[in-house]
Amino acid sequence: MGSGFANTLVRCFVGFVALASSPLLADKILLKDGSVIEGEVFHQTSVFVRVRNSAGVQTVNKVDIRRIIFEEVKKPADEDRQRAEALERVRLAEEARRAQEAQAIEAQKREEARKAEEARRQKEEEEKARNAEKPREITHRGAIWRSAVLPGWGQYYTGRKKVGLGLGAAFGFTAGLKLFTLAGATHARKDYLAVVDQLLIASVLVGGPGRTLSGLEFIRLNERKQAIERLDRRSNFDRYATGLLLVAYGANMIDVVLYKPGKYSLVSFGTDGSQARLAYRFEF
User: Fold this and answer.
1) Phi, psi (degrees; rounded to nearest 5) at 47
2) What angle do CA 205, 211, 216 make, to 5 degrees?
3) What 8-state DSSP symbol labels residue 70?
């Protein structure tokens, strides 16, 4: 009895070692009655199939089998490779997820920057619209310095466009007249100096004192007299033009200094017969 028990123990140990060292059991035998036997099909003939599983070794007749599904037994090396591939796929998926998150964050930042820029532009446009709608503040000081720089500008600035244009035109006309008369006076002065030089030359060439005037000297003296008259006339015109220019500029400054909206105002420029008249009416 002792030897029989020992033989049984050895058989169990060998069977356990065989099962432990064998590949994973993954084959499936589908029977016609609907039941399924799972295990490792390790031997088969044209009549029966032998399968090994946790219940031991079973022999199944092929007439009772509907289908046998053989599963590939995975070796440890294949499992390590698949595990490494799975880890690599997980790593790549994580990197792709992080890249998508970074792109989403970047897109969100760009969208926020775009919205901020649109808000800034809209604010600037609203500010410009408010400034355009806001009535322009007209100051007395602003009118004075404008008229001092360009006569008539201050009046135009205060809304009296006709007065401003009239004063500007008067100043422009008198300034042009002043330039014209100044050019004439300058030219007349040059002519006078040229005649004097020619007279001096003729006196030196003809001789000393106590002599009678030569024909050339007489001509030069006559030219000198005409040059003096022309110079006096052109100079007088230039002085008159200067006076008119000062009058136009002075009228411009007097008007812009005295005029204040709502207090007193300029009435009109007019003529009385052959005389020009500048009339103001003060309203306090």
Assistant:
1) -115, -40
2) 45
3) P
Contacts 24+ apart (CB under 8 A), 176-184: 177/241, 177/244, 177/245, 178/238, 178/241, 178/242, 178/244, 178/245, 180/241, 181/234, 181/237, 181/238, 181/240, 181/241, 182/238, 182/241, 184/234, 184/237, 184/238
71: its two tokens: 């599963």
| Amino acid type, 199 | L
Q: Which position has the token pair 């003060």?
A: 282
pLDDT tens figures, 169-224: 999 999 999 899 989 888 888 877 877 776 666 665 555 554 455 565 566 677 77
pTM of the entire predicted model: 0.42
pLDDT top residue among 275 and 173: 173
- Is there a contact between 283 and 264 (Cβ–Cβ < 8 Å)? yes
Question: 140-281 domain in CATH 1.20.120?
Answer: yes
What's the rounded Cα separation, in Å, for the pair 16 and 193? 145
- What is the distance between the alpha carbons of residues 75 and 114, in angstroms, rounded to a whole number? 57
Q: Tokens 């760009």 label which residue?
A: 110
Residue of 157, 178, 165, 160 lying closest to 247 (CA atoms): 178
DSSP state of 62: G
Q: Round to whole Å and give the CA distance between 42 and 32.
A: 21
CB atoms within 10 A of CB 283: 9
Contact 155, 269 (CB under 8 A): no
Pick the CATH number of 2-69 from 3.10.560.10, 3.40.50.2300, 3.40.50.720, 2.30.30.100: 2.30.30.100
DSSP 8-state assignment for residue 34: S
Closest residue by Cα to residue 157 from 172, 173, 174, 142 = 142
